[in-house]
Amino acid sequence: MPSDIVISCSHALKDHNLTIAFAESVTAGKVISEFALIPNCGCVLKGSIVCYDVSVKQNLLGVSPEMIEQYTPESAEVTEQLAVSLRKLISADVIVAVTGLAAPGGSETDEKPVGTMFIHGFFKDKPWHFRLFVDDEPEQVILKTIDAIASYLLKQLAAGA
Questions:
Q1: Which stretches in the chain have pLDDT values below 50?
Q2: CATH no. for 4-158
Q3: Which end of the chain, N or C, is surrounded by fewer C-beta atoms within 10 Å?
Q4: Comparing C-alpha atoms, which of 67, 74, 76 is closest to residue 131?
């Protein structure tokens, strides 16, 4: 069952006649899955590309090996490139890309510990991004990230974006 904030976000997107698409790494399709559980979501959802593996980021979404080498697959820079590339592949009013570290085994460091999430997107032509840290179990890191995305989008809609 999607959270109240995801339900509200989906309804607000529908009320504003806006569509949304996702590029998901760490969330592995969970973002669109949560939005897809909401009745009448078909007029809002465009699609999602799950790019968990580096090869998908590179081969489908055009992230260069040099960028991944320099910044790591879980970084603000790579997340921005995912969002830019997604805009070319899926026509939607709202674009959301997410990478991060929900569990050990990625590119975690002292400056970027497990629980660090990177979100980048476009609201029509306006870019936006934020970094989030969630100190919790992997599933909760992902669910709280989804809620943070929905909350951000709701604030943008309320502000007349």
A1: none
A2: 3.90.950.20
A3: N
A4: 76
